[in-house]
Amino acid sequence: MTSVVPKVAVIGSGISGAVCASILAKNGVAVTVFDWGRGPGGRMSQRRETTKEGTDLFFDHGAPYFTVSNTGVLDVVLEWESRGLVAEWKEKFGIYDCISKAFVDYEEESSSRKYVGIPGMNSICRALCNEPGVESKFGIGVAKMDWAIDQKSWSLISLDGMFLGAFGGLIATDKILAAPGFAHLTGHPPPLDINLAPQFASRVEQVPFRPYFVLMLAFSEPLRTISVRGFSFKNSQVLSSAFCDSSKPGRSSASECWVLHSTEEYAKKVIAETGLKKASDTTFARVSEELLQEFQRTGLCTSQPCFMKAHRWGSAFPTASIAREDKCLWDTNKPLVVCGDFCVSPTVEGAIQSGLAAASKLLEMHLVSTTQTTTMSMI
Fold this sequence. Notes:
Elements: E1 7-11, H1 15-26, E2 30-35, E3 47-50, E4 56-59, H2 71-82, E5 86-88, E6 93-97, E7 102-106, E8 115-117, H3 122-129, E9 134-138, E10 142-148, E11 153-158, E12 163-167, E13 169-172, H4 181-186, H5 201-205, E14 209-219, E15 230-234, E16 239-244, E17 256-262, H6 264-274, H7 281-297, E18 307-318, E19 329-330, E20 336-338, H8 341-344, H9 348-378
Parallel strand pairs: 1-2, 1-13, 2-9, 6-15, 13-20
Antiparallel strand pairs: 3-4, 5-8, 6-7, 10-11, 11-12, 14-17, 14-18, 15-16, 16-17, 19-20
Helix pairs in contact: 1-3, 1-9
Organism: Spinacia oleracea (Spinach)
Pfam family, one: Amino_oxidase
GO molecular function, one term: oxidoreductase activity
């Protein structure tokens, strides 16, 4: 390309934002990624914890792995694999029945390949956010987005009132930017004002989500009663799945690390009692004990963990797709594109698809704009 958008802001460093930023940068666009987290990843984040003895533990406490069926996404993933960013998780998976206390089904060997980031799920996003042409700024929340019609640029203001810069294009990847929940978390109104993007802001605002808790556990000795490295629970009101993180390629085997996922019903029950605000230490302690007790009741866990910590995902997992055909949303009057798993499907693959589509759409919008400007100058 000989002419591109001079500067673009991508809000959110999850997989959709990271993929979008990487594609734009490869097409000559100067990209700045903003994220209010400490690092990239979103629900692809990896949690680092330390035991009392000083041992470092790592947990993929969001997405445990991902699968791919779309050929376009597969091409991208295979390129990541060639770079050592991902690897196939070749382990046995199954279903555990909490009533019969037995594994009632095992996954077929021919099932979809399970990919994980190396050495953590967030490694993919970290690499993409560090590619040439991409500048990443973490610990910065965007509180306001203003469109200057005369300058044809977006001005961004941070939560603490700092001017973040002017940009010729804007990619928003977090649905909370248009949701009432933004005010609960920050005390500011959602930055994606419905008046700025009446065509789709209300659709983003109303995306339903599925909450759940995760429990990160570490054991000094392997749980030898478990014959698989990942499984779902049948007939449990508390637990939905469990994954052995330390069995993934590229992980340390010094301790056996497991991540337990609660059911949606359990999470909703706790949130109904404690509210949507940030959970207290008391709440997390209670959740930790209840999830561990359910795990022990299955008979699969007969020893006490040497580390235990809970985390809540309140709105990271959408239950609806609002742009399944187009893969992203865009404003027809200004360079604003919204992408994320909530546009396609609540999966890592869906988020990648949406990020690819968003980059393509923004480049297409600019080409149309450039062509129109050139035509007018020739009249």
